[in-house]
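This entry is listed below:
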Amino acid sequence: MIIQREIRRKAFHILAGLALPGLYYVFMLLHLTVLAKWIIAAIAVAILVVDIIRLKHLFIKIIFLDIFGPLLRKHEISALTGATYLMLSSLACFTLFRDSIAILAISYLIVGDSLAALVGRSVGRTKFFEKSFEGAGAGLAGCLIIGLIIMHLPGTDLTFWEMAAGAGAAAVVEILPIPLDDNIRIPLASGAVMHLFFH
């Protein structure tokens, strides 16, 4: 039952999450990235405000849980949600890194982290820092697959080694016990590796 709930949650995470880099890619092809960044900033602020209001007002919290409760992890009930962190980290990526890197870094989070969680929770046996090597392997494979797809899209300017280094960074950061939400540390770390070492 717990695994089924996690599958539903991660399926929603992947579908909804990939819409963000997907839409930005369309804006990039249309040479409207400045507009895209303003839209992302507005959405990020709106989601953050709703999240803060939800945490401070019980009535809003009850309505929020009725709608989104099945998609939340236990700790998100009394803290900022992953969606808020995702929007904030996405805004940071699109501000700090070139477009192709930002799209890839966010996609690594969406696909890699989701597969790592699903495989780790269902078949993970070899534990490492409360995660599993099986989950980490699945996450890395997912990152490499989505990376290969994105690097071959028209308009992107990514090399194979750049893509692979970012995928490796995302997998390593996902498994390490860094006291920072995955939605923040994975895209920023993988994006920074691609930006700093392949700029």
Observations:
- The first strand starts at residue 127 and ends at 128.
- The chain is about 75% helix and 0% strand.
- Residues 2-197 form one domain.
